[in-house]
Amino acid sequence: MFLVAGGYGQVGGYAVRELAGRHPGQVIVAGRSLDKATRLAAEVGAGVHAVTLDIYDPATWDAAMADARTVVMCLNSATTDFAQHCLQRGIHYVDISPSQAVMRGIERFDEVAQHAGATAALGVGLAPGLSNLLVKQVCEQFDEPPRVQINMMLGLGEAHGTDGVRWFLDNISDDFPVPTADGKRLARPFAGRRVANFPAPWGRRSVYRFNVADQFITPNTLPVAAAGSYFCYDSRAATRTLGLLKRLGVFRMLRSERIYRLAVRTLASSVGGGLGTDAYALQVEATGLRGDVMQTTSIGVAGNDNSRLTAQIAAVTAEALNAGKHPAGVHYLEQLITVADLRALGAWPV
Description:
Dihydrodipicolinate Reductase, domain 2, Rossmann fold
């Protein structure tokens, strides 16, 4: 059976519906509120079960996972204890978290997973996730590892939820290390302006360097010489304003816990309220040798409702793991599936 942790949240609810539609009677919606889980199970139907699960309370784990073969984690956990417990029990594990700290923590359980015969899939979402798969596809066009620029646009009109707001605030506040030929240097978020040519209808947009995990994952999992990630919102005005606020040092105030909590509450309640669209777009541009000629090529996708896309990708990945199609251990999405797999199963931008 499939257990969706955080199954009544923004992404989790979509994941429950995706899996229940193809596997009636084989889906469990899990979360701290049994009432919310039960309401969603009744709404979806298809034999969906509801259980209580608190990922920070080990006393709830074994009972909730008694019948689970594959767990889909739709919460941004602050620890990796629950993931470790799943893998130790031989339960496959799919995690949508974009957090580098979470992914690196779960990487440490590779031997645990192999010993128990379990497979973990990390970086399952838009970026990292689909962005990594596009990098994989574009790299196949080169004879040597290319240099890659990964550009992402998100819509301000989508209700990203508290986890999404925290991800943005955590990553705009502080500089982050990026590898260089002679070691590492610190990169400043929302600096280093470049231009991306996103698929229609978005076209050319200013994008800014940002701390997205795909730029650190892909050089280790794919034939990539170097990678950099860049970001913007669908609203040009909002993107310019954020750049200005960053230059003025406004985001340094987020180091105050009180101001940080206030910012999370304010943004979580305001996004999705008509400030923009629910669109997203990715563009991957790669430069490298093809034969004896240095060439640049790009690939991109655009769609609406990033939360739904993330759930679709997570569901497809969970199904593949549940069927035992992949080796045990801890892997990233691009090491397990391809763009063709997503297209074949309908988990593709629309």
